[in-house]
Amino acid sequence: MLILGIESSCDECSVAVVEDGKKILSNVIATQIDLHRPFMGVVPEIASRIHTEWIYPVVEESLEKAGVKKEDLHGIAVTNRPGLVGSLLVGLSFAKGLSWSLGIPFIGVDHIRAHLYAPHLEYEIEYPYLGLLVSGGHTIISKVSGFDDIEVMGTTIDDACGEAFDKVAKFYNFGYPGGVIIDKMSSQGDSRAFQFPKPNLHKGNHTYDVSYSGLKTAVINQLDQFHNKEYEKTPENIAASFQKTAIDILMKRLKKAIKNTGINRVVSGGGVTANTYFRKTISEIYGIEAYYPSLELCTDNGAMIAAIGYHYLNKGIYSGFETNAMARVASFRRKYP
Ligand code: KG4
Ligand code: ZN
Question: How far apart are the two ends of the chain, measured CA to CA in Å?
């Protein structure tokens, strides 16, 4: 079954052709990063206009690279939630038009679920597992029992992990995009230079929740307070100390989830899983099977959309033309305290 996957939820215009939810025949990723750099963040109006210009050539390039004619496609999968509505609408409208003209079904898929599914493109992974989604907009610890069966155990109560990377980088003018730059700078810095605080979420039902606004405030407004005077106050040292704390916050909660559930298989996805320290740390957790995507599949891409879309379409589950784009999703079950 050949599925075309379309991703346009943010600043990546990406289209892939994936066979049977597993074999990537093409995965074209056209990034708008250079166009948003002058603003140090994604400008929604620019993003949607550029998607409108790029979507057609990106689809054509993806089909050509895959060696597939559009008439050979069996279905289309497209991100329709969550994300920037204007940008989502470009991909969704294109998918609807192509679906109608070719007489094949399309399915609107959830971007977050697709991120968590990305490692399945590269590894044979059995269910259940603990799913760790760490992106620019979301930070979720979950129990995953099937490609579409996700129980949220914990989330961030304020900023997302990737958002904290982006905001710290923006404040200190480190460059854009923030996560990648902080990762690079950290390799030249010493994480012992600042002892930033970790959130203390022991009260209430926050067993697996995380918080990043306290760390962000400490790094931005209270630098002196947490400075270890034996080390210099360099940008690289700030980056390394922040990065270590941001990832350690996540790992502490993950280890708790592993211990309490007895599930020792962990699958992660989303932009922050590209982080060097994240990859090293999760690989070193004792006694677990840890999966994370190769770098190209960590950040936004059409292949993960096509791969998860295949499972819906293969079961005869597809979307109607009334399907709309949604900025947010509230569809996850939250079971654990
Ligand atoms: O999954 P993604 O491409 O888009 C969303 O769905 O949000 O994730 C983007 C996020 C951004 O916040 C970006 O700064 C972060 O992932 N990111 C990183 C790295 N690469 C991307 N954060 C830390 N280290 C990286 N190497
Ligand atoms: Zn994403």
Answer: 40
What's the 35 CA to ligand 1 centre distance in angstroms? Answer: 17
Nearest ligand, CA 32: 1
Q: Are 198 and 231 in contact (CB under 8 A)?
A: no
Report field, pTM of the whole predicted structure over 0.90 = yes
Q: What is the mean pLDDT of the chain?
A: 96
Residue ranges and CATH numbers for the domains of the chain are: 2-116+299-334 (3.30.420.40), 125-292 (3.30.420.40)
Model confidence pLDDT, tens digit, residues 98-130: 999 999 999 999 999 999 999 999 999 999 999
pLDDT of residue 336: 61
Substitution site in 13, 174, 180 for ligand 1 pocket (most atoms within 8 Å of beta carbon): 180
CA distance 131 to 117: 9
Contact 269, 298 (CB under 8 A): yes
User: Which residues fall inside 5 Å of ion ligand 2, going by CB?
Assistant: 135, 300
195 alpha carbon – ligand 2 mean position (Å): 30
- Which of 87, 111, 135, 295 to mutate to test ligand 1, by most ligand atoms within 8 A of the CB atom? 135
Alpha carbon distance 271, 186 (integer Å): 17
Q: What are the start-end ranges of the H helices in 103-156?
A: 111-117
The answer to whether residue 334 scores a pLDDT higher than 90 is no
